[in-house]
Amino acid sequence: MKPLVRILLGSKSDMKIGDGIKEYLDKLKVPYDFHISSAHRKPENTVNLAKDAKDEGIKVIIAVAGMAAHLPGVVAAHTTLPVIGVPVKGPTLTGEDALYSIVQMPTGVPVASVAINGGKNAAILACQIIGASDKKYSDLLAEYKKELAET
Amino acid sequence: MKPLVRILLGSKSDMKIGDGIKEYLDKLKVPYDFHISSAHRKPENTVNLAKDAKDEGIKVIIAVAGMAAHLPGVVAAHTTLPVIGVPVKGPTLTGEDALYSIVQMPTGVPVASVAINGGKNAAILACQIIGASDKKYSDLLAEYKKELAET
Amino acid sequence: MKPLVRILLGSKSDMKIGDGIKEYLDKLKVPYDFHISSAHRKPENTVNLAKDAKDEGIKVIIAVAGMAAHLPGVVAAHTTLPVIGVPVKGPTLTGEDALYSIVQMPTGVPVASVAINGGKNAAILACQIIGASDKKYSDLLAEYKKELAET
Amino acid sequence: MKPLVRILLGSKSDMKIGDGIKEYLDKLKVPYDFHISSAHRKPENTVNLAKDAKDEGIKVIIAVAGMAAHLPGVVAAHTTLPVIGVPVKGPTLTGEDALYSIVQMPTGVPVASVAINGGKNAAILACQIIGASDKKYSDLLAEYKKELAET
Amino acid sequence: MKPLVRILLGSKSDMKIGDGIKEYLDKLKVPYDFHISSAHRKPENTVNLAKDAKDEGIKVIIAVAGMAAHLPGVVAAHTTLPVIGVPVKGPTLTGEDALYSIVQMPTGVPVASVAINGGKNAAILACQIIGASDKKYSDLLAEYKKELAET
Amino acid sequence: MKPLVRILLGSKSDMKIGDGIKEYLDKLKVPYDFHISSAHRKPENTVNLAKDAKDEGIKVIIAVAGMAAHLPGVVAAHTTLPVIGVPVKGPTLTGEDALYSIVQMPTGVPVASVAINGGKNAAILACQIIGASDKKYSDLLAEYKKELAET
Amino acid sequence: MKPLVRILLGSKSDMKIGDGIKEYLDKLKVPYDFHISSAHRKPENTVNLAKDAKDEGIKVIIAVAGMAAHLPGVVAAHTTLPVIGVPVKGPTLTGEDALYSIVQMPTGVPVASVAINGGKNAAILACQIIGASDKKYSDLLAEYKKELAET
Amino acid sequence: MKPLVRILLGSKSDMKIGDGIKEYLDKLKVPYDFHISSAHRKPENTVNLAKDAKDEGIKVIIAVAGMAAHLPGVVAAHTTLPVIGVPVKGPTLTGEDALYSIVQMPTGVPVASVAINGGKNAAILACQIIGASDKKYSDLLAEYKKELAET
């Protein structure tokens, strides 16, 4: 099936968060592709992954990054698709550096931030965005919501 | 036209943020409805506005709140639609109270946070979410993006 | 004996804090009941536990939650009983997210916050609230206070 | 009528917060007395106001203080009554100094903190504590809650 | 030799900090006495240790406390001697709660704060205070300063 | 004279900071050019200004931005020249959002951060960088340092 | 009378804090001298003022500084006298930058920090330090403490 | 080869950060010397290392320090060379104390701050500063940048 969500990781060290995203997209049956591409170390590649997403049928981009977490904002600058940012706690501060770098975007270029290390919620939010216009996914979400209440 | 976005304000004192949201939804031609309904002072009303949204054709909910900003989370608990939270700076702290209360949601119930006082970006993000499945809005966004680069 | 205090946990992962509350309510001989019920994952159940508390003879509700800790506020929205909130330190920030989400309530719907991870003090405070109108508990507290000074 | 609530202000400069407390206790018909007594500048007087409160029929103490806001904790050390602390924003930091000084009490001596500058909620919480054992006040609170939903 | 410094610990759990103070007072040959006495759990005892210090020949009081660290401020309220506060990092926040509770004292009742967990520096500062009027200790400090530069 | 420093502003609203940079580069006789180019709203233009700088004889780039201040990092991703970032205090938080977004860069792509709103120091630092290999500018700096000591 | 306290200001812009120090030293009859000398702009002069203080009969140094407030630490590095640091709130952050720069000194070189903008308390603390070995000043402090309780 | 970079460590405990700097300067073939010299414990030595650097052919100084991290600022006060500061996370706070002490320098005496614990980036930045006027190093950086994109 063609991917509807594009996952971008700023660094291989954020793989654990990436795995949480995949786990929940799998659970909700949302097809995705997955790339590691730093906004700072591989900027051209990152920009292309952002620019091409829409024409490739992607509906939401999830970008994961820690510290001065520019990845989601850089991606958002190059697409009109909704971009979800996942701030990652780094080795020194408590994650507020990544959170501020992701959430405090200037007017005109929004990023949708979820919780620090909140990869799983990014997956659910991506499914909600797709589900807003696709009954298949909103039904899957309704089922998941019931399941959630029962655990 | 039937509203596609529902705006919820936690308090009349956040009206200025609400006006920014309306201004940008108008600019992007996204139809919306608008309610003031506190999560704490009018909980039943708030829950109903969340629960009924999907059946009324709403595709995204924007919830605006300051201090212990529970409104977006409470709304998210009662819908499978994507919920955008706008944290508002209050009279004492610098807005991090509202930001944390909105963005730090537990696994299973995401809220998409934008910047503190970032109502305009919430409007654009809502349009992006709708535009992900509706060419009309993604075209409007593409135009807006060009305009943005020219200012 | 009929419970006078209702303990609500937002998540099973906060069980250690819950155990501290029970330990101190036991020590002060205050009868209680205990529920795990997330404000976001099981909102109806949570609301009912709040709404019914007063008629069931409960005098104080203790609500424990981490991250965007909405549980105490959601409970307070549905009862006129005093609600004590216990913020829990989560895996990323240092607990200030939960503290702000609990303590920064808007005018009209107070929550009484104790220290981060301060479950034991929530139990003592609950006993003080009951003891304000019931000599049996205020005597038990007076004894405890002496004991405290001797350790 | 004999006072049921004792209000203590750490400094005359917090009078505006004190007025908010009075306004809401008046609205809820809770009788109170009122004192300005710094924990640091008039320690003996403060300790006596705490120690004597219970025998004078007081059921709740509200203590208001800014900066290194020790007043609520010092009061709590000398009584078994529930003590509500109101942190006040000072001229430099954003109020988190007073909040931490009030809420982070050690095990054994709880203080119930409300929001920064949250005097009105301290009044409502005091009424809830009294109302937990006195139908007159819980009825007044039920009325107030309705009124709140209607504004 | 009669003690010149009084060390007060708010809790046995701060013993490691207390040991650092003793080590450095020993190194600088400053005689001291040592007490564990919580401001909240043993307030009378604490007040007496503060009040009597001057007449017993004490010249500086060092007070060590974590969380809502009121001990140094409570001591300062009952003496005209200089009081050094040592904020201790607790189990949740990063120590800024204790720091603010110690350093943000209101006009009229100063506390001299050293670094978080900075017990050793409290000992040196105490020696500097005594050495300001006693050549024996200022000579010992001059020697220590040389030693420091050589390590 | 050909410019040695390139100044980039993320937004016209940061003009006051930009003026401080110009004032100090003028004072130190460092030739510069000046552009307003948002990393998010005009990404291609911004990238080109970064990429072309070296070949145009620029030796240092100063990038000024507030909130999620990505501009300096985006510039640094596209050049091997030293990039100085100036974080700007925005309307809600106290400037720590911009500071973290600028200073917390990942290994491989450094940005040199100066103080929040510290445009003047960015100018001096740029001159120091040029002066490290150009006696003319290091002499001008030596003079400025004397002048500074005399004010 | 020969000065017993040396006041150092890092910048003319902190004059208001300097005036508060003078006012309180005058009130307590403590003789002082006063200098404006930046640790960064006039380092030699600052070092000399620190080094010579002891031989000139000074017993305490008060150093006032904002932002990266190095002045008190630099002074403490060059004297064995007790050094009191007064952190000053600057134009961007809320004063925590100056507080951390003053209070977080490494082992071996303590600085006694008072509250942000707490110049008056620095004066009182200086008097307490002198009064620890000089009855005249401890008597003046005892009087002041009474006066304080009466206001 | 004569050193072009001088590395200064405030304390032996920061050796791990120092090793990261050396590793990257070696990788980029930049010759350096290395000193441990505290700004507070060995102030004269530190000042001399700063003052003499320029005449010894040094082009950039990297200064590493934690807590009240004055070392970079003290060095900057005594040279017109560019000074890079590396804030180090200490045992209590999360590194923001060192960051603020380094980055918040007053006008006239800039320090270039990199990320908390960002020693490797300090090395790259030093190479960029030298490379701005020396093709050999800018070529090495161009190669490194390619390598970075390939990892």
Q: What would you note in describing this structure?
A:
The structure is a homooctamer. By secondary structure, the first copy, chain A, is an alpha/beta fold. The first copy, chain A, has one domain: 3-Layer(aba) Sandwich (Rossmann fold), CATH 3.40.50.1970. Chain A contains six helices and five strands. A five-stranded parallel beta sheet of chain A has the order 2-1-3-4-5, with helices on both faces. The first copy, chain A, is globular. Chains A and B meet through strand 5, helix 5 and helix 6 of A and strand 5, helix 5 and helix 6 of B.
Described by the principal axes of the CA atoms, the overall outline of chain A is globular
Order of helices and strands of chain A: EHEHEHEHEHH
The number of helices of chain A is: 6
- Overall CATH architecture of chain A: 3-Layer(aba) Sandwich
Oligomer: homooctamer
The span between the termini of chain A is: 31 Å
Strand content of chain A: 15-25%
Number of domains of chain A: 1
Q: Which regions of chain A are unreliable across 5 or more consecutive residues at pLDDT < 50?
A: none
**CATH domain topology of chain A:** Rossmann fold
Helix content of chain A: 40-55%
Question: Would you report the number of β strands of chain A?
Answer: 5
Trace the largest sheet of chain A across and list its strands: 2-1-3-4-5
Rg estimate of chain A, integer Å: 15 Å
The structural class of chain A is alpha/beta
The greatest interface here is: A-B, 41 and 41 residues
